[in-house]
Design a protein that fits this description.
With 488 residues, this protein is mainly beta. It has 5 helices and 31 strands. The radius of gyration is 26 Å and the shape is elongated.
Length: 488
């Protein structure tokens, strides 16, 4: 038997969450009628995502001065993916107002027998979310076109309805520098990122509010939450649920650019409600509803997709960050000061921003436990640490060196300028480096990111370098660089 309800209120961005869980009598026996949202004109179906008439036109606009909603930046990439940015697979993406709205909103709820779900979802032009409550009962929420919002979808899938293709960021486990992504030779079979991870809805009128929701619509315009997925009927008869590995969001506690301080990691539901974290990432029991927080993105909001973390920057926030041209000017200023190795007295120089992962012979190196900057030298290993090699010294692969200036022992790594301007909190001089990877940025940027715990695995959190994803070490996670000026 099929029941459907057409809503009557026009506004709700959040659906209230009750305590009726899957398996309860109320969940299996829904009320015969329910008011949700006003009816919409069925003669105007939602335009297909990624169709030939609108091939991601909101993402790559042709207008001279389009409205920019904000930008998404994947952490762990220093300006571009390891194999280069290509189309929708890139390290950074700006979201612009689309020529035509493609947003959707809840419209009609159907209570159907589970075996009839595929028949109920046969309308390929209709967006819908299917909640399987049991083998005999499912709820389908039909969505309709919303002329007031633009929708952008993010996920691992390369299908055309995904606006931003994101793959796992590799190398966050405490190795030195050079994080990357599995974007090269195909997608990882072990990826924990959902093919249709999340969607962002942006209001087309000022102040252009952006909201995030777990899960994205597939090629059939459906979101399917199976019998094992965490889902529930709310106290007023509506439905909500969580994705398998979840979509976590952390809003900054204050202004991201003026007083950077981490907030609290929360989980976002399919309908945009905010919850405390589950016991583990994929646990079936949801966390407690957090009623005084929202899914509205703000400058500095972090979005974790269980394999990659994205940073949301607003146009206002980006005005405080350095452009690539400004970063190049800062690099030239550093080199113009002619820093020297305090032992070899050779002049040091930061390599071109385009030169990545290939160490230049003039490149500055740093002892990360003290901050003294040197040129490269192949000596200084501690004789009393680790197994001895030829000459009684520790093999080079241990990475532990003794600084000839202060005798402190620790990693000795090349310095790299942070090239992704969107990760900066200001345009200050590059005076500090993250430990132990050696990425250089402003003091404010280093201090801000060193405070932020980023998700790792199913329930661990670690502060990490935003440019490469390396876990931070030491008391502060960053060090002030001590340069030696020219002796002449």
């Amino acid at each position: 038997m099929l029941h459907f309800f057409r809503p009557t209120s026009s506004e709700p961005q959040f659906w209230p969450v009750g305590m009726v869980l899957e398996g309860s009598s109320e969940a299996l026996c829904p009320p015969p009628s329910l008011e949700l949202r006003p009816s919409c004109n069925k003669s105007q179906p939602s335009p297909p995502l990624g169709s030939s008439s609108q091939p991601h036109d909101g993402v790559f606009p042709e207008e001279k001065e389009p409205v920019k909603y904000g930008e998404l930046i994947v952490l762990g990439h220093n300006g571009s993916l390891a194999h280069g940015d290509k189309g929708r697979r890139r390290s950074r993406l700006a979201l612009y107002k689309r020529p035509k709205a493609n947003g959707v909103k809840p419209d009609v709820i159907h209570n159907v027998s589970t075996p009839l779900v595929s028949k109920a979802l046969s309308n390929k032009s209709q967006h819908s979310i299917s909640y399987t409550l049991s083998r005999s009962h499912s709820v389908i929420v039909e969505y309709t076109h919303d002329i007031n919002t633009d929708m952008f979808q993010i996920g691992r899938s390369t299908e055309s309805m995904i606006d931003f293709v994101v793959t796992d960021t590799v190398g966050s486990g405490g190795g030195q520098g050079g994080g990357g992504a599995g974007e090269g030779g195909g997608q990882s079979a072990q990826s924990t990122i959902s093919r249709y991870a999340c969607r962002i809805m942006c209001e087309r009128s000022a102040p252009y509010t952006a909201r995030i929701y777990a899960a994205g619509f597939d090629s059939s315009k459906n979101i399917f939450l199976g019998e094992r997925a965490a889902k529930w009927r709310t106290s007023d008869g509506l439905m909500d649920g969580l994705t398998t590995n979840g979509v976590l969001v952390m809003h900054p506690a204050g202004e991201f650019v003026s007083e950077p301080a981490p907030g609290v990691w929360r989980e976002i539901s399919v309908c945009g409600n905010v919850f405390a974290l589950r016991e583990t990432r994929s646990a079936q029991q949801r966390g407690k509803l957090v009623e005084n927080e929202s899914n509205t993105l703000q400058d500095g909001s972090l979005i974790d997709l269980c394999g990659a973390t994205l940073l949301w920057r607003t146009p206002a926030g980006l005005r405080h960050t350095p452009t690539l041209k400004q970063l190049e000017s800062l690099r030239q200023e550093l080199n113009a000061a002619r820093p020297q190795c305090p032992v070899g007295f050779n002049t040091l120089a930061f390599p071109s921003l385009a030169q990545r992962e290939i160490v230049d012979k003039k490149q500055p190196w740093v002892y990360v436990n003290c901050g003294h900057v040197h040129g490269y030298h192949n000596w200084g290993y501690r004789k009393d640490k680790g197994p001895a090699g030829h000459g009684g010294t520790v093999p080079a692969n241990t990475g532990e060196r003794e600084c000839p200036m202060c005798r402190r022992v620790g990693p000795y790594v090349p310095l790299w300028l942070g090239c992704e301007g969107g990760l900066y909190l200001d345009a200050g001089p590059p005076t500090h480096a993250f430990c132990p990877c050696g990425h250089v940025c402003s003091e404010k940027t280093a201090g801000g990111w060193s405070q932020i715990p980023l998700p790792h695995g199913t329930h661990a959190f670690h502060a990490a370098c935003p440019f490469c994803g390396t876990w931070l070490t030491g008391e502060q996670g960053h060090i002030k660089l001590i340069f030696q000026g020219p002796v002449d």
